[in-house]
Design goal:
Layout lengths: L7 E5 L4 H11 L3 E6 L12 E3 L6 H8 L4 E4 L10 H21 L4 E5 L23 H4 L4 H16 L5 E6 L1 E3 L6 H6 L3 E5 L5 E2 L1 E3 H14 L3 E5 L5 E2 H7 L3 E5 L5 H9 L23 H7 L7 H14 L3
Parallel strand pairs: 1-2, 1-4, 2-3, 4-5, 5-6, 6-11, 7-10, 8-13
Antiparallel strand pairs: 9-12
Helix pairs in contact: 1-7, 3-5
């Protein structure tokens, strides 16, 4: 029996911890091309690597040079990396350009990495949020408009351009070595802000398990929208303790006070004012559809995840 055909796959955001792990897994069975708008990353032999922004002219040259079977779109600019306008151009307009090129060059599959933040943090959220729940993040803060618009854009292409076989993944907090999102930066610190009187339940997935989820979504090709989360969760303040942080209480009354403190102390990278509600109200997503459809089960426990941050503090306590 002949071996399965090696597909040619474009992975964006190649400089990030998640994309690096996805590329390493795919390289064993497929031809991979790596792209990042921040820098050209060093890759294993046989993996072309480019530094180019998706909304620039040079990005199309990569599509001309390689005949892609699939695109795994992971690259995204975080809120603490740039201002709102540049982030919108990169995350939303860049994604539209990418999807237009996928249509033009007849790419037959797209996997889009989104976020659970799109649901919004509200005291009225149900205990478990399914994929059908409304996306209310932009009602909470304008700083998440790009995340919600990216989702809306992807859903338009999902239903309008069926030949793209698009899969949208909404993971919970991704943590682990090399991850530089807000939550990972926060748990890396010796002191972690906690809002007095609040400790919402939170979900966490190890970056290795998320990489496996991305690869499964690609190789099993079941288009649709999926939450990605384990079956367990933990109160935020317990997570802080388990990660080896000391709690730094922040007054939560009046409601604007924690946002003012965060802005005044320039905590935008790890405790940004626009995410304050996520440290007050639970946003627990129901991931059973993804687990059942793709046979995915996280291999790393919460204890495994938090032990990484404890060990990092033991190596470098300050």
């Amino acid at each position: 029996m002949p071996p399965p055909k090696r597909k040619t796959v474009l992975v964006t955001g190649a400089a990030g911890a998640l994309a690096k792990r996805v590329i390493a897994r795919l390289h064993e069975r497929h031809n991979v091309v790596a792209v990042d708008f921040r820098r050209r990353v060093e890759t294993d032999e046989g993996i072309p690597s480019y530094k180019v922004a998706t909304h620039t002219r040079g990005f199309e040259d990569i599509f001309r040079r390689h005949q892609f079977d699939a695109v795994l779109h992971i690259g995204r600019m975080f809120a603490h990396e740039s201002d709102r306008l540049r982030r919108y151009n990169t995350n939303v307009l860049g994604a539209k350009r990418l999807l237009d090129l996928c249509c033009k060059y007849k790419v037959s599959q797209v996997v889009m990495h989104s976020t659970y933040f799109v649901y919004g943090a509200s005291p009225y959220n149900p205990a478990l949020l399914s994929e059908e729940a409304p996306l209310k993040a932009s009602e909470v803060t304008q700083d998440l408009v790009d995340s919600v618009e990216l989702e809306s854009l992807a859903q338009i292409y999902l239903w309008k351009h069926r030949k793209l076989h698009m899969t949208i993944l909404r993971p919970c907090n991704v943590l682990g070595p090399g991850v530089k999102n807000s939550m990972s930066l926060l748990l890396s610190r010796p002191l972690a802000p906690v809002l007095t009187g609040f400790s919402p339940m939170m979900q966490f997935v190890h970056v290795e398990d998320m990489a496996e989820a991305m690869v499964l979504a690609f190789e099993r090709n079941r288009p649709g929208i999926y939450n990605v989360a384990p079956e367990d969760w933990v109160p935020y303040q317990e997570a802080v303790v388990q990660a080896g942080c000391r709690k730094l209480p922040v007054p939560s009354v009046p409601p604007m006070l924690p946002k003012a403190i965060s802005g005044l102390l320039n905590w935008n990278a790890f405790f940004p004012p626009y995410l304050i509600n996520y440290f007050k109200y639970p946003v627990i997503i129901d991931g059973h559809t993804f687990r059942d459809t793709f046979g995915w089960s996280p291999r790393h426990s919460l204890s495994d995840i938090f032990s990484y941050y404890r060990k990092q503090k033991a190596i470098s306590p300050h």
